[in-house]
Amino acid sequence: MKRQKIVIDFSSPNIAKPFHIGNMRSTLIGMFIQRLHRSLDHEIVSINHLGDWGTQFAYLASGWPSTRPIASQWESMPDAERIRLFTDCYVNSNHRARENPQYRAEVRELFAKMEKDLSENRQSKELDLWRDIKDVSLKYLDVFYGRFNVDIDHCIGESEYVRETNILIDRLLAQGIVYKNTQGLCVMDEDGSGKYAILRKSDGSTVYLSREIACIMHRDRKFKADSYVYVVDRAQHRHFEQLKQILDRIGREDLAEKIQHISYGRVIGLSTRKGQTEAVEEIVAKGRQLALDYVSRSPTIKVTDPKERISVAENLAISTIIVSDLKRAKKSEYRFSFENAFAENQNNAVLLQERHSRLCSIESHNSKLLPAVEELTVDPDAENNPESRRLLHHLREFEGVLVSAFENNEPAHLTVYLMRLSNIAGSAASALQVRDQPEKIAIQRLLLLSAARHVLKEGMKLLGVDPLEKM
């Protein structure tokens, strides 16, 4: 397999909004693709392209004076609560704009001023507020990225490309590729059908599409990658088609061919504009409580120390969110739910963690045999046992599953495999007793179960799940 340099864009939440389960889906899929590609020795550059620019920040600037709490209250407010306040401010301003066309026009005029100030590096109270919003949002996001072991190389906001976007549009205007229509919009004809793409508004402000063009051209100059991958929901298919068409029109067919949109189904029922959102912080809190309840009532939980139990519950909550998402084909749409998430003997994160910790326990109880195990390879003829043969057969499929997951950018292939491995390994662990067996049989059985634990551990780590050795 030829080593490639790949730039992968994922997560990319909007600032000033709660990090919701829809953002999380892009993050989890993107992190899986990053880990898997790196494990296969590809050079990966990951980018978190923050949604930190657009008319919504003019709505915030307009509504904030009547929303902001007193200084002492603001200073003591947690970042998550500040984000909720920003969201409320935006929702209220947006609602006002829908009912008041004059106010909507004033906000758009304010955004044009903000963008001009940004492009010309001028100070303004609106940009000062925007920078404060960005600082709060980044600290807020870091909490979630830390919990979910998210590691992205570069965090670059959309705002970074405003100046380059205007330079590019001016050049394309001079070349006659872009023109101003009768409404004063800077547009580019698409495909001869009479349709056109808007690249700059009549008030001089840029749009998301034009900033995206400047961004991908900047990335290509900087990274010179073999491909540019975007992990974005399938509703953005049209956006990427437009992006490629425009690159073709401006003579960058080579760059258009490098763009790959890895699409996924959306998590149903999420809309910040209407004030409805599934914030990940609320989902994690609910998951933690359900996990604590499970740890308290389950007879299979061995840890007794209260701090250890809390740690196990936190792990199970995060693992559950990850596995609940990645076990589904990425094209599928779904509504997040904790139903059966903490039920025993179900295909869930609890199953993966319980089997891994059980296999760790078997190794621990037979630690004297481990030096001998490390020097051997599995002998399928050591004993004529259907459980050992079934487990060995499944372990041999691991490499093929990784190839399939890689070729299809599909984490569900690995997740489903690991669930089946957990079930098979559980049956094998019950049938293949290691203690009080002849040494040759004991060593072969321990080797097979240790191999299962190793594969399970490596697979879980690729998903972003931290394997528990004890629970």
TrEMBL record:
Transmembrane segments: none annotated. Its EC number is 6.1.1.19. SUPFAM superfamilies: Anticodon-binding domain of a subclass of class I aminoacyl-tRNA synthetases, Nucleotidylyl transferase. Keywords: Aminoacyl-tRNA synthetase, ATP-binding, Ligase, Nucleotide-binding, Protein biosynthesis. One of its GO terms (cellular component) is mitochondrion. It is an enzyme of class 6 (ligase). Residues 352-471 form the DALR anticodon binding domain. PANTHER family: ARGININE--TRNA LIGASE, MITOCHONDRIAL-RELATED, ARGINYL-TRNA SYNTHETASE. NCBIfam families: argS. This is Probable arginine--tRNA ligase, mitochondrial. It comes from Steinernema glaseri.
